[in-house]
Amino acid sequence: MTGFGQGECATSSKRYVCELQSVNHRYLDVRARLPKRLSALELQILKTLQGRFARGRFDVTVLEELTGEQSCTLRLNRPLAHAYLDAAKTLQSELGLTGEVTLELLLSRSDLFDLEGEESGAGDADWVAVRTALEGAMNAVVEMRREEGKALEADLLGHLDLVEATLATIVARAPEVVQSYKNRLELRLQRLLEGKSVDPGRLEQEVAILAERSDIAEETTRVTSHLRQFRDLIQQQGPHGRRMEFLLQEMQREVNTIGAKANDAKTSHDVITLKSILEQLREQVQNVE
Length: 289
Prior knowledge:
Layout: E1 3-10, E2 14-23, E3 28-33, H1 42-50, E4 56-66, E5 73-76, H2 78-95, H3 103-107, E6 113-116, H4 124-192, H5 200-213, H6 217-235, H7 241-261, H8 265-285
Helix pairs in contact: 1-4, 4-5, 4-6, 4-8, 6-7, 7-8
């Protein structure tokens, strides 16, 4: 599911802002963008998200702003700047490249600058503030995803009803398919025998063989069971996306078998319809955690 949330936390001297964006993904994938001073908090952010979400790609951005009267001085790492410049000129000479190393290029290197008067690394107080901001962002994402989930639930249930209705049509038509085959076979035999009577026992034997080969009772029973389990999962709390994917995979397999057994154009058409509905369900399940 998609979602966006923002949270913040202010201390006596700083303000921390956390923005969280989520999009659909089969697994949990977290990408964090933090100020260099807070980079050590990335693992803790990852663990916090793992404790709250099971699927989705999350982009986390943390901003840190000074709000108090604490003074900071920007310090340039001059030796490193000269090293960058010398390395660029050497590479240019070796490769015979044109162009110039500009001030803008050097300024794009964030590691050339440090803030004097600021802590050198993240401390416990920083993590407490960042976690508070992150919790606020996660709560907002959960609320947005909950609203999306209500609409998704209705859509999934509607597609399940279509699967059930189409399957019922196939089951209801099964006896007609066998009777139609019997009529065609009898007519064909009469033509081949030039009007002579057809052996009823032999005819019934051929029809029985077809009926056995085209029997879809087991497949329809399993699909019906999978539909019931799918509906139960929709009503339950917790992450069920992967289990839903498995059920859809199994339903697709049973429908393929029904299609292979089909000896009727109308049934084949209904099987294609079933496959299309299941594919739509599969795409929607990608949104389910």
